[in-house]
Amino acid sequence: MGKLVINTQMSLDDAMQGPGGPDEDTSGAFRQGGWAMPYFDESMVEDSSLGMASAGGLVLGRRTNDIFASYSPH
User: Fold this and answer.
1) Which residues touch 25 (CB under 8 Å, ≥6 apart)?
2) CA 20 to 30 Å from 7, out of 19, 25, 59, 74?
3) CA-to-CA distance for 28 and 10, rounded, in angstroms?
4) Residue 5 contacts residue 55 (beta carbons within 8 Å)
5) Hey, how many other C-beta atoms are within 10 angstroms of the C-beta on 72?
6) What's the predicted TM-score (pTM) here?
7) What is the rounded average pLDDT of the residues 51-72?
């Protein structure tokens, strides 16, 4: 059986929205989109890549799927 790996970024004030870009997720009047990217370094890329590579598959939410769809099948 495959493994389900959850990959999230959470701020110290419990924000789990829009870490990628300022307009990625503005639901709930969230105005801090893109908050995680200035802190995303080589070690975070490596950890995220290892976690995703160890998973048996990839389960995406609707919004993330919409974002990923623009890159697929590239």
Assistant:
1) 17, 18, 33, 63
2) 74
3) 16
4) yes
5) 7
6) 0.49
7) 79
Instruction: Note the pLDDT tens digit of each residue in 3-49.
Output: 676 777 777 877 776 667 777 777 777 777 777 778 888 998 888 78
Q: Please report the pLDDT score of residue 18 as a whole number.
A: 62
| Token reading at 36 | 């995680």
Give the integer Cα–Cα distance in Å for 18 and 11: 11
Q: Which residue has the tokens 């890159």?
A: 71
Report yes or no: 49 and 63 within 8 Å, Cβ to Cβ. no
Q: Which amino acid is at 28?
A: G
**Tokens found for residue 59:** 């389960």
Domain ranges, ordered by start, for the chain:
14-47
